[in-house]
């Protein structure tokens, strides 16, 4: 019995012996970012004050969305081409995606908080992994935020610098063709700038935060798979003897992380649909708007920043999700091809050897045949193949746009 002990516990997690400063930072950054929208992401509870604040944000964004939608329909009905309305259509898509994301996040806040706390507790045991997640979180947050600020600054500055003649094209879209008098020009500019502020610094930034938060969860799931794989791979390469308990324990831990991946996929599938559709539509609208001659340098910079932001978010979304898919199946081939040594001990009976063989076959079958990944409402997995398909769609649109011009 004593000899069996030395074969066990190869795959057990180490307990934390110190406070992990990086997990504390991660908790702080997500807490403060979602607090700005009335959500407590680590508790899931919402006070009456938070509910009222979220309701105000949702109502304001909905009013902006309805105004933009009616304005676009009105102008399109009076012979304004879709190319001239491309920028406003992109703002419309962003507002809709933000309101939808906020509503879905609010409904699933308790389940999201439970999953987040569970993954954070596991991450707290690994200092180096938490450091990598912290760095990845900073990159995924700072980049889109800086591009969003640049886009908002260029757009609002462009409006502020317009004279009476330059405001005519904006008045035609936002005020249904009514041209404001000179004494009301400042009020008209303030109203348009207010809508830009709501869309770009409230709606768009909430999408940035939500995508970054989803990528953060995916990173934590990825490192859970990575830790399991590194432990088992090290044992296989070194020719360590794996007991039946080791194989069963790894299979149980692998199943646990797969369940967390499925829960993550189920919770965020609707939001991923909104995000991906919004990114593709916005890219098409922005590219068409960028193609129009006569745009000012400020608007060109704003369009370019918006395109870069959406490409950044799409790449981050697909990259980290595809890493989960790859890491979950990484050891499948090695486990089949490498020889797993059975514990050679006189106390191991024929039944123990058969039990070891069965656990080995079950683990091999699980790693090879189990499909693990982030599914988008059952339509497709977030991986490199689906990313290339999305990129092909945008490239096809670019070719059509170039030929039509």
Automatic annotation (TrEMBL):
One of its GO terms (cellular component) is plasma membrane. InterPro entries: 7TM_chemorcpt. This is Gustatory receptor. It comes from Strigamia maritima (European centipede). Keywords: Cell membrane, Membrane, Receptor, Transmembrane, Transmembrane helix. It is a multi-pass membrane protein. It is found in: Cell membrane. The chain crosses the membrane at residues 52-79, 85-106, 133-161, 267-285, 380-402. GO terms for molecular function: signaling receptor activity. One of its GO terms (biological process) is detection of stimulus. The lineage of its organism: Eukaryota, Metazoa, Ecdysozoa, Arthropoda, Myriapoda. Its main location: membrane.
């Amino acid at each position: 019995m004593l000899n069996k002990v030395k074969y066990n516990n190869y795959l057990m997690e180490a307990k934390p012996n110190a406070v992990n400063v990086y997990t504390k930072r991660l908790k702080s950054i997500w807490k403060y970012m979602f607090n700005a929208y009335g959500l407590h992401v680590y508790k899931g509870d919402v006070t009456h004050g938070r509910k009222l604040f979220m309701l105000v944000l949702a109502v304001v964004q909905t009013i902006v969305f309805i105004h933009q939608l009616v304005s676009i329909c009105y102008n399109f009905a009076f012979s304004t081409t879709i190319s001239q309305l491309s920028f406003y259509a992109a703002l419309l898509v962003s507002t809709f995606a933000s309101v939808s994301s906020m509503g879905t996040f609010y409904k699933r806040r308790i389940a999201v908080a439970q999953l987040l706390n569970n993954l954070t507790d596991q991450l707290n045991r690994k200092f180096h992994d938490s450091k990598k997640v912290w760095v990845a979180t900073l990159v995924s947050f700072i980049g889109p935020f800086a591009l969003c600020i640049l886009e908002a600054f260029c757009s609002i500055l462009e409006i502020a610098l317009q004279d009476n003649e330059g405001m005519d094209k904006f008045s035609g879209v936002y005020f249904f063709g009514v041209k404001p008098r000179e004494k009301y020009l400042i009020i008209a500019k303030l109203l348009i700038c207010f809508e830009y502020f709501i869309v770009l610094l409230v709606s768009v930034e909430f999408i940035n935060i939500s995508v970054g938060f989803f990528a953060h969860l995916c990173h934590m799931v990825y490192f859970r798979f990575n830790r399991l794989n590194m432990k088992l791979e090290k044992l296989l390469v070194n020719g360590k003897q794996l007991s039946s308990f080791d194989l069963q324990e790894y299979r149980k831990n692998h199943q646990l992380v797969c369940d967390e991946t499925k829960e993550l996929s189920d919770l965020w599938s609707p939001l991923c649909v909104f995000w991906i559709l919004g990114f593709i539509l916005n890219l098409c609208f922005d590219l068409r708007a960028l193609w129009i001659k006569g745009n000012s340098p400020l608007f060109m910079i704003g369009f370019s920043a918006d395109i870069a932001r959406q490409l950044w978010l799409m790449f981050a979304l697909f990259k980290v999700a595809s890493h989960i898919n790859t890491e979950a199946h990484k050891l499948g081939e090695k486990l089949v091809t490498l020889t797993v040594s059975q514990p050679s001990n006189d106390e191991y009976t024929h039944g123990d050897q058969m039990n070891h063989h069965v656990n080995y076959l079950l683990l091999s079958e699980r790693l090879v045949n189990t499909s693990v990944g982030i599914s988008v409402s059952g339509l497709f997995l977030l991986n490199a193949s689906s990313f290339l398909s999305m990129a092909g769609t945008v490239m096809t649109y670019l070719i059509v746009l170039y030929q039509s011009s």
